[in-house]
Amino acid sequence: MKNSRIKSSQWRWPLGVGLFILIILLVPLVGGLFWQYLIANVLLLSLFALSFNVLFGMAGYLSFGQGAFYAVGAYVTGLLMLAKLPLLVSILLGFVAAGVLALILGFFCVRHTQVYFALLTLAFGMMVHAIVWKWSSVTGGDDGLIGIPRGSLGVPGVISVQLEPFTNYYYFLVIVTLFAIYFLYRIHISPFGLVLRGIRENSGRVDFAGVAARKYILIAFIIAGLFAGLAGALMAPLEKTVGPAVAHWTKSGEPVFAALIGGPFVFSGPILGALIYIGLKEFIVRLTQYWLLIFGIVLLTIVLSFRGGILGFIQEQIQKKRSMY
Amino acid sequence: MKREKKKGMNRREFLKAGAGALALGTAVAGGLSFPAIARAKLKDPIKIACQGVHSGPLGNNGEFMRQGALLAVEEINAKGGILGSKIEFLFRDDENKVDIAIKNARYFVTTWGADFLIGIDSSGVALAVGQVMPELNKILIVTHGSTNKYNEDIVYKNKIKQCFRSSIPLYLDGIGGAFVAKDFPFKRWAGIVCDYEYGHTSWKLFKHTLKSMRPEVEFVSESLAKLGTVDFSSHIAKVLTANPEAIYAVNWGGDLVALIKQSSVYKLYEKIGVWLGTMGGAMDVLTGLGREYPKGLWGTTRYWFLYPDTPRNKAFVGDYHKRWNIYPSHNSECAYAAIYMIKHAVEKAKSLELDSLIAAMEGMPLDRPAGPCYIRKEDHQAVYSPPWGQVIHDPKYPMPILTNLKVFPVDKLYRHPPFPPIE
Amino acid sequence: MLNTILYLVLVGIAEGMFLWLVAAGLSLTFGVLRVLNFAHGSLFMLGAYVAFSLVKISGGNFWIALAIAPLVLAIVGMGMEVFFFRRIYDLDMSFQLLLTFSFVLMLEDIVKFVWGPLYQTSPIPPALTGTASILGVSFPHYYFFILVVGSAVGLGLWLFIERTKWGKVVQATASDREMSSAVGVKVPQLYTGVFMLGAWLAGLGGILSVPIRSLSPGLGEYVIIEAFVVTVIGGLGSLKGAFIGALLIGIFHTFGVMYLPVFELAIAYITMAIVLIIRPWGIFGVREA
Hints:
The complex is a heterotrimer of chains A (325), B (423) and C (289).
Chain A: H1 2-30, H2 33-58, H3 67-82, H4 87-109, H5 114-134, H6 136-139, E1 145-146, E2 152-155, E3 159-162, H7 166-189, H8 191-201, H9 206-209, H10 211-239, E4 241-242, H11 249-262, H12 269-287, H13 291-305, H14 309-323
Antiparallel strand pairs in A: 1-4, 2-3
Chain B: H1 2-28, H2 35-38, E1 46-52, H3 60-78, E2 87-93, H4 98-112, E3 116-119, H5 123-136, E4 139-142, H6 148-157, E5 163-165, H7 171-182, E6 188-194, H8 197-213, E7 218-225, H9 233-241, E8 246-250, H10 253-265, H11 268-271, E9 274-277, H12 283-289, E10 298-300, H13 311-324, H14 330-349, H15 354-361, E11 365-368, E12 371-375, E13 382-383, E14 388-392, E15 401-406, H16 410-413
Parallel strand pairs in B: 1-2, 1-3, 3-4, 4-5, 6-7, 6-8, 8-9, 9-10
Antiparallel strand pairs in B: 10-14, 11-12, 12-13, 14-15
Chain C: H1 2-33, H2 40-57, H3 62-83, H4 93-115, E1 131-134, E2 137-140, H5 141-163, H6 165-175, H7 177-182, H8 187-209, H9 219-234, H10 239-259, H11 264-278
Antiparallel strand pairs in C: 1-2
C-alpha cells in the first residue's frame, strides 16, 4: 500500500506541470487574443511573485519595493528596444540592470529585519517611482515610454521571426518565462534554498548567525530583483508602453497578494496565486465596482485563517489524511 | 430635441422603405446570391465599450462619463438604434492605470466584440491605449484625456488613424487662459502647476501665448505640486513670496478643491487681482467646494452646462438631470457626443468597415450640446469652443456656477498643423 | 528676507502639525503594540468623513463634530482591535502588516459606498476665519488653531505617558509585555485602550483637516505614506520623535518646495531611506536589543 502511494505522488507533480505547460502552449489555438493576453499576464505576475517569494516565502523578508526592479527591467528594455537594439540583448540588459540595482539597494536593505526592511524597501521603491516620474527627458515622465517595438528573433541570414504579431510574442514570452520559473524552481530545491528557509524559521537567530546569514539574504535579494526585472523586461514589448505606475508601491503589492493567496510556503503557490489574482479581478470587476472591498476581505481571511494560502491549506489537508493511516 | 426626433424618424422611415424595396427586389431576383444587399440593417447589436476612472480619488470622472454615454445610448435605442441596430453598451473602470486600460481595451475588442471604444480620463492612458489601436483596429474616441500629444503626435504625426477625440485638448487651458489673461492689466504672473505632462504643457502654452500678446508680462514664480498633494501650504507660500499680481493654476479634481480652500485660508485671493484655474469649472470642483468657492475666480471646463443657450443644450441638460439627478459635467457631454459621433458616422458610411467610418468621421459636423462642432480631418480632433467664466453663487443651483462667459474663436483657440514645438 | 524665512517656517510647522496628528497614533500603536498599522491613514480618512457628516447634520457646527468624531473613531478602533488585531499579535510582522493593509482596501470602498466618490469639504468654523500677525507676517487663524491643538496633543500625550500611573503602565507593557502581565496588568485591555487612543488621534487629525482640504476615498493611502515617513525619521514608537520628525519634515518640505523643487517628490523618501540606513531606530527612537 505504502509503495503505491509513494509512486502515485511521484508522478502527480510532473503530470501537473506537464499539463500546465501544454495548456499554455495550446491557448492560442483555442482561445482568442484576449486569452493569450491574460495568460501572458498571469505568467508575468507568476514570475514577479515567484521572485518576490524568494525573499518572502523562503527567507521570511517582506519587501514592498519589488516594483523598483520590475520598473528598471521594463524601462531599460523599453528604452533599448526604442533604440532598435535586438530583443534578446535588450531583455538581457534589463534583467542585468535590475540585478545591479538589487545589489546596490540590497546592500543597505539586508542589514535590517522585518518592519525596517519592509519600510526601507518601500522607501526605495517610491524613490525609483519619483525618479522615473521626474526624469522625463529619459523616461517620458508620467506619459512614459510609448510605442515600444517587439523586435524579431532569429539567426541572421538564415531565419527571422517577427514578434510584432501578438501570438508570436506570446510564444516567446511563454518560453522565456517557463525557463525562468524552472530556474527559480532549481534554486528552491537547492541547498541554498534550504538555508534560506532555515533563516525564515529561525528568524530570531539571524543576528546570532551574523554575517553569513546576511550574505544569503543579499543573494536572495539579488535573485528576487533579477527576476522581477525580467518580468518587467518581458512586459515592456508586450504592452508596448511603460509608465511610472510600475514602480509605485501599489504595483509592488501585486506579487505580495499573489504569493499569499496561492501559498508562500509551496514553490508553485505564487503561480496559483497569480492565476487567481488576475482571474478573480477579471471576474469581480464585471460584477461590482467595489473590488477593493472584495480583495480586502480576501486578504483578511487569508491572514486570519489561511496563512499558507490555498496550496498550504491543501497540503495541510493531505498531511492530515496521511497521518490518519 | 424635437428637431432631432424628426430627423431620426425620417431617416428610419426612409431606411425601412429602402430596406423593404431592396428585400423585395432581391427576392424577385433570387436574392440569396446577394446576401449583403438583402441585409440593409447592419450587425445587431452595435457594441460600444467605454472606460474611465471609476475608483480612487478621481472616481467621479468615470461616473459622469458613464452617465453621459448611457443617456445617449438610451436615447438612440429608444428611437430605433443606429440604422435599425440597437446599441449594446459596456462600461469598465480603468483605475487610471495604463495596464488595466490596455487590458480592458483588448477585452472589449477581442472578447466582447466591441465595434467602438470611447472614454479615458488620463492623458497618459490615452496615449498608451492609442498606441494599441492599430493592433485592435477599431475606432477609439477619447472623451477627456487632454494631452496635445494625442492629436498632434499619435494621429497627425504617427498617422494612427483609428484615434479620435471628442473633448477639447489643453489648448483651452493654455491658449484660452492666455486670452482671458491678456485683458487684465496685470503683469506679474505666477503659476501653481500639477507636476506632470498635462500641467507642464498647459503652463508652457499659457506663458508662450500670453507673452506673444503682452510682451511686458513677467512670470515671477512657479510651483510644481505632485499629483495627489493634499497640503498646498508650501506651494502657496512659495508663490506668495514672489508677490504676484495674478495666478494661473493647473490642477484638477480634489487637488484643486484643496488648493482653493487653502488659498482662501491664506488670504491669497485678497492679495492678487485674478486667479485662473484651468479645471475650475468642472462639476466635481464646483460641487466639491460649494459655498467655499470664492466668487470672482476664473475657471473653465471642457463643457459648461449653461453654455450655449440653445434648445439642444437645454434638452440635454434637462434629460440628464432628470435621469441622474445631477447636472452634467464635461465628462458627461463629451461621452454623450462621442456616442452621437458614432451614430452619425455609421449612418453616413452605412457600414461598420473601418476605413469608411474614418472617412465618414473626418470633417464631419457634429450637433452636440456643447455647441457647433466639427471633427478636424488632419488630427481627428473635435473642434468646438467651451467658455471660460467667473464663479458666482446663484441660488437657483445647488452649486456655484460660471458667469461672465468668454468664448474664443476656434481658429485662435486651437493649434494647427504642422504643430510647432512649444517652448 | 527674514520675513520670508519666518513665513516659510510657520507654514512648515503648520504642515508639520498635520503630519504629527497622523503620526502620533501610528507611533503610539507601534511603540506599544508593535504593530505597524497601515490602516492608520484610513482611520484618519474615516474620521474626516464622519466629521464631515456630523457638521452637515448639526447644521454647520464644527465644534460638535470636533468633539464627537474622534470618539466614533475610538469605537471603530476598539472593534478593529478586539475582533481582528488581537489575533495577530503573535504572528510574523509581515502578516500583521498585511492584515492592516486589508483594512486599507476595505475602508476605501466602504467610504466610497457610504459617501460617494465626489469630493467633499466643510466650511471653516466662523470663529477662525481671520488672520493674525506675527512679527509682521500675517498667518491664518485656523492654522494657529492647528498649532495650538497639535501642541496640546503633544503635551497631553507626554504628560499622560510620563506623569500618570497609567502612562507608566503603558510604558512598562511596551517594553516587556510578559512581565507586565505577570504583575497583573490586564494586557489585552491595555492594548485595546492604546489602540483606541491611536484611533482617537487619527480621528482628531481627520476632523481638523476637513475645513481646509478635500475628502475623497483615496485619502487614506496618501496620508499613510506621509505618516510612515514621519514615524521612521522620528523613530518608530517614539512620540517625541514623531512630533519633532513631523515638524522637521514640514519645514524641510516647505523650504524644499521653495528652493529645491526638483527633489520635492523624492525628498521624503530619500530622508526616510537615509534614516533607515544610518539610524533605523530614528532620531529619537530606542535601539532594539
